[in-house]
Write a structure and sequence with these properties.
Blueprint lengths: L1 H21 L14 H7 L3 E3 L7 H4 L14 E5 L1 H10 L10 H4 L9 H6 L6 H5 L5 E14 L11 E16 L5 E13 L11 E12 L6 H6 L12 H62 L7 H23 L17 H12 L7 E5 L12 H11 L1 H22 L4 E14 L15 H6 L4 E10 L5 H69 L2 H42 L3 H4 L11 H14 L17 E4 L57
Parallel strand pairs: 2-7
Antiparallel strand pairs: 1-10, 3-4, 4-5, 5-6, 6-8, 8-9
Helix pairs in contact: 4-9, 9-10, 9-11, 9-13, 9-16, 10-16, 12-15, 13-15, 15-16
Length: 701
């Protein structure tokens, strides 16, 4: 009795402590404050998360960007298109885009890890689906001590005061087959020691059982196809078989291929945008230099009060120069623009802006003191595509169509599996069991007593039992099953309709891309002839202007200034036509699904790059400082916050201990025009880097 009282007291104490732990203790810090001071002071406080991050040296050591104020020209980094694509792919754990998707919607960004994440998903991945067919081990152990008074002596085996020690040990192995059958091997050991007067002498409390069981679905849930599609535990609308999980992995691979293709496409677009920005800058600089020479000649006449140097003529030439100077500055620095994906040449980025956009896609520092300069020329040879081959290739190679076909195939499988639920659940069940009874479980005191050892009695095979039967489950009306079939049919029709519309869209886009190739090539020839004519026109007018008298120069000035502008526009249009032709060829490969092959990019499972190993080593080194295993029973968990977040941009000027310098006033004095003496017309691409110095219009070159 004292032992039982002690056990009862321990149980009551544990229940009391548990109830106290689940209740909210009314301490001072949890008292209600009428002015909500605790809420405004702590609950709304912005904090830093306690997360270990890797600080990359190339990010922390990023140099200031190149601007128009830089006096000395930077060093050029001659880069080919293949090198830029290779660098972008090597530095792209995240598939970058020109928008802010990685900041605004990081969950929608494609990364290098997405196919592996889909494959290893513990709910819907392939391994998760295969785990339903793994062998399962289960074990149960129960102990009971019964002490009860019974009203009926029959239930006590001949006594009304029953005292009983009852143990139960169960262990089993179960395996699910692909056909839906379930096989189980089970070991059951019971120990029942009581004071019933009807027990044998000596008492034999041990019972050992060894049984095998099978359960096979004859109708609903049966068959290899159903279990591979829906899984052994599939339900209408909730299927996750091996085949469906594999299709999900294939869809993830198609999405990853699309993301890689879009990255390569964006890099090539940015590369040619930068090339055009350099060519546009060269043409603007050449036009500005010609306008500068014209302004200087007229300014010399204006200073000496000679004919041809009237104030309106001098102002007109000066306005021409500053207008072209403004275009040069915009062509160098560029204007902010929307970062959206486009497959057409914008031609409004400027050298520095386009260069930063290319660096962003390549995954390198925004500025390192160098200026990327394209070292590859655009395509100029005529390319002719065979339409029939293009059409067949586009309908077979586009990753979007392959992804949608996987979805159609998945809906077809789901429809086939849904029809299985219209059948009744009829399971054939069979068991076969060996029994043994004994005074001991294993030890044997008397060899002549067959019931002295339960396991020895079990192995004799004298006591065998079997059971065979059917289990039938039949929902009246099959409402859920019919709804599942109808929903699967609608889902299949939807995916087929989307596939049909996607094929039409692909054909339309391919048609436009092929037509654009012919247009761009024809336009490039026309723009070249226009450029030659504009150059000859300007040279003729310049010769007439140099040999003309003062009266004739006054008449020819308007024509000369207009010819300078027309030549600049013709050169810009010519290079735009060349790049539009190169991008049109690229767009044909994009629309027919061969852009990666066109750029010699192939997807395969391979080793991690050196950068990934370097990052992993640094992360592992930082994580060694924290415990690898959290024991919430013996220790407190790690903190989740690093404290309040200082929302001030920088310390105020009144802070005496502030070591952060305030930004200096960098207002520019625009009273003096800058020196824009650039290269000659024959300068190669990118040589026209601006240098800002004082300028005297009366000085000579």
């Amino acid at each position: 009795m004292p032992e039982k009282l002690k056990a009862l007291a321990t149980l009551l104490l544990a229940v009391f402590v548990g109830l106290q732990g689940c209740s909210l203790r009314k301490s001072k810090e949890f008292q209600f404050d009428e002015d909500f001071s605790h809420y405004h002071g702590a609950a709304t406080e912005i904090s830093y998360p306690d997360v270990d991050t890797v600080s990359y040296e190339e990010i922390a050591n990023t140099q200031a960007p190149l601007t128009l104020k830089d006096d000395a020209p930077p060093d050029f980094w001659d880069l080919t298109l293949d090198e830029s694509i290779q660098t972008a792919l090597a530095n792209s754990q995240v598939m970058r885009d020109l928008g802010a998707l990685v900041l605004e919607s990081p969950d929608n960004v494609r990364t290098l890890y997405d196919p592996a994440i889909e494959e290893t998903d513990p709910r819907f991945g392939v391994e998760a689906a295969l785990s339903a067919f793994d062998t399962s081990f289960e074990s149960q152990v129960f102990f009971e001590g019964n002490d009860r008074a019974l009203n009926n002596v029959f239930f006590g085996g001949g006594t009304r005061l029953l005292r009983q020690d009852l143990h139960n040990y169960t262990a089993q192995l179960s395996k699910r087959a692909a056909t839906g059958s379930e096989f189980t091997i089970r070991q059951i050991i019971d120990y029942d020691l009581n004071n019933s007067p009807g027990n044998d002498d000596p008492n034999k409390p041990w019972t050992a059982q060894f049984e095998g069981e099978f359960r096979h679905p004859l109708m609903q849930g049966g068959g290899v196809d159903f279990n591979r599609i829906a899984g052994p535990d599939g339900r209408p609308g909730a299927m996750n078989g091996v085949l469906l999980a594999r299709i999900s992995s294939d869809i993830s691979l198609a999405d990853f291929e699309i993301a890689v293709r879009n990255l390569v496409n964006d890099v090539e677009n940015a590369y040619w945008e930068l090339y055009f920005s350099y060519r546009e800058l060269d043409s603007k600089i050449a036009a500005r230099d010609r306008a500068l020479e014209t302004w200087r000649s007229i300014n010399a006449l204006f200073v000496t009060n000679r004919r041809g140097g009237e104030a309106e003529k001098e102002a007109q030439a000066r306005e021409q120069y500053y207008r072209l100077e403004e275009e040069v500055q915009n062509a160098l620095a560029g204007r902010p623009s929307d970062n959206v994906r486009t497959n057409t040449l914008r031609g409004s980025g400027g050298v520095q802006t386009s260069e930063r956009r290319l660096r962003r896609l390549m995954g390198i520092a925004p500025s390192d003191g160098r200026l990327i300069r394209p070292a590859q020329e655009p395509e100029m040879a005529r390319v002719v595509f065979d339409w029939e081959e293009l059409l067949v290739e586009a309908l077979n190679r586009r990753a979007e169509l392959r992804r949608q076909k996987w979805k159609v195939r998945r809906r077809e499988m789901e429809l086939a599996a849904s029809r299985n639920f219209l059948l009744p659940r009829v399971d054939a069940v069979g068991r076969y069991r060996f029994r043994g009874l004994g005074h001991h479980l294993l030890n044997s005191d008397r060899q002549d007593d067959r019931f002295d050892n339960a396991f020895q009695d079990l192995t004799t095979g004298d006591f065998q039992e079997w059971q065979v039967g059917l289990e039938v489950e039949l929902p009246v009306g099959y409402r859920q099953a019919h709804a599942g079939v109808r929903n699967a049919e609608l889902q299949l029709n939807r995916e087929r309709a989307i596939l049909d519309e996607q094929e039409k869209q692909v054909v339309h886009e391919l048609t436009g891309a092929v037509a654009e190739v012919d247009r761009a090539y024809t336009l490039s020839q026309t723009s070249y002839n226009r450029r030659v004519a504009a150059k000859q026109h300007l040279d003729a007018l310049d010769s007439l202007y140099q040999d003309a008298d003062e009266n004739e120069k006054t008449r020819l000035l308007d024509l000369l200034l207009d010819a300078q502008r027309r030549l600049a526009d013709a050169e810009t249009t010519y290079y735009r036509g060349l790049l539009e032709y190169s991008m049109a060829i690229k767009n044909v490969h994009l629309q027919k699904g061969s852009l990666l092959d066109y750029n010699e990019v192939y997807l395969s499972e391979g080793p991690w790059p050196g950068k990934a190993h370097y990052d992993a080593a640094r992360l592992d080194e930082s994580r060694r400082k924290s415990p690898k295993l959290l024991n919430y029973i013996l220790s407190w968990p790690l903190p989740t916050s690093r404290g309040p977040f200082d929302q001030r941009i920088m310390p105020s000027a009144s802070d005496e201990d502030s070591s952060v310098p305030l930004p200096e006033d960098r207002a520019q004095d625009l009273s003096d025009p800058p020196d824009m003496t650039g290269p000659s017309e024959s300068a190669s691409i990118g040589e026209g880097v601006l240098r800002n110095t004082a300028f005297d219009p009366t000085a000579q070159n």
